[in-house]
Design brief:
mainly beta; four-stranded antiparallel sheet; 25 strands
Length: about 400
């Protein structure tokens, strides 16, 4: 019987999963959703993918029409992490064996030649001992159809937790950006205010860790707190020449031990993978946008050597800046014209800037709309509103992201 204990556990799980899928699928009454054009060229919507929830059901809108997770095949439903990303879905179809178990977008690197993946594994020790952390590296050659994997011990014995934030591959060198949280002294738990941004350099040919650098640290004291977060990449699995970080520094507003901290200033910092140089962006337009960061209405992303930012520096007139990270200068700037938004219209904090286009989700008197603007002229090149197949307005709907693929 001992030989079959794994099978005895696995079979009920499979039966339960299949049963759950068919009950869920049969109970799905989600009406199809589609964008109806108000003005402009519908071809502008070709690369746009919107993700969200309608009546608590996850959906994706591609090519103007909706797809619901519950209407996927059983295996598509079970492997839902690829539902929102068509490129990862295609990679899974290309080599399902290599992609199996690889779940984190930020751990992937993909180009025409290779698929790279780096994640952190650890062996759980007792509460009084340190965890044994290892960097697990996998590479797939898309030309030769071969793969290999290996693990490397991470040398830092003070680690409590580490997470991969970006992976880049150049020839036989892999660079892995990670956020490492250290153990607190004395109490055997983590101190999330004592965190470093590490860059691990891996020699893929020799399968060895050749460098471990600390790029930035977040070590708080009694007077100030520092928070550093990675700026989202427009293409989190593709080649990026830069990594960008948002740094917020807060200072204590009183001398009391329990006194509150208030935001003192914010910065954007770029890291050039090729030169290893860290640069703080000092431009006045960047500082103007950062001045609104305490109000939480700053939208930003990076990719293709650019940092894209948007904030409302004038009422109902978003201020958009495209910053060239290599040249360290503003490449393009736009104050969205006031006439872009009609009465009872307002833009949300869901936006995307890419390929000289500004994509904005708009509230149209309770209806979900999308406006696409040309960054050179500020004119609307497409505007549409989301409706059900019968033309009525869907209720209880939420858009959570715009992708341009």
């Amino acid at each position: 019987m001992k030989r079959y204990w794994k099978l005895m556990i696995l079979v009920p799980f499979i039966v339960l999963s299949i049963g759950t899928y068919y009950v869920s699928a049969s109970g799905n009454n989600s009406s199809p959703l589609q964008f109806t054009k108000i003005q402009g060229d519908e071809k502008e919507m070709d690369p746009v993918v919107l993700t969200g929830q309608y009546q608590n059901e996850p959906f994706v809108i591609r090519n103007l029409d909706s797809e619901f997770l519950k209407k996927q095949s059983f295996w598509g439903w079970l492997d839902a992490r690829y539902f929102y990303n068509t490129e990862l879905d295609e990679l899974a179809k290309e080599n399902r064996a290599f992609m199996r178990g690889k779940k984190s977008y930020s751990s992937f690197y993909v180009d025409d030649q290779v698929i790279g993946y780096a994640d952190v594994k650890f062996t759980q020790q007792s509460s009084r001992e340190r965890n044994d952390f290892r960097l697990a590296v996998s590479m797939y050659d898309r030309i030769q159809k071969t793969s290999r994997s290996f693990e490397l011990n991470l040398p830092d014995s003070t680690l409590y937790y580490t997470g991969v934030e970006d992976v880049q591959v150049e020839g036989q060198t892999m660079k892995v950006m990670a956020r490492n949280t250290k153990w607190s002294s004395g109490n055997g738990s983590s101190n999330f205010n004592d965190t470093d941004i590490h860059l691990y350099t891996v020699d893929l040919h020799k399968m060895s860790l050749i460098k471990d650098e600390i790029l930035m640290s977040m070590a708080d004291d009694d007077h100030q707190r520092v928070d550093i977060s990675s700026v989202n990449e427009r293409d989190p699995i593709g080649k990026n020449s830069f990594a960008v970080f948002r740094k917020l520094v807060s200072v204590k507003s009183s001398k009391e031990p329990s006194g509150d901290y208030t935001l003192d200033h914010g910065e954007f910092i770029s890291y050039d993978y090729a030169s290893g140089k860290l640069t703080t962006l000092q431009n006045d337009s960047v500082k103007q946008i950062l001045a609104n960061i305490e109000n939480g209405n700053v939208i930003y992303s990076q990719g293709d050597g650019e940092l894209n930012m948007m904030s409302e520096t004038k009422p109902e007139q978003p201020h958009v800046v495209i910053y060239d990270l290599k040249e360290d200068r503003v490449k393009k700037e736009l104050i969205v014209p006031a006439q872009t938004f009609q009465p009872k219209q307002s833009y949300s904090n869901i936006a995307r800037i890419t390929d000289n286009r500004l994509y904005m989700i708009v509230d149209r008197s309770g209806a979900v709309g999308l406006k696409i603007l040309d960054m050179d002229s500020g004119t609307i090149v497409y505007e549409g509103v989301l409706k059900k197949a019968d033309g009525s307005r869907p209720n209880n709907i939420m858009i959570d992201n715009i992708l341009v693929q």
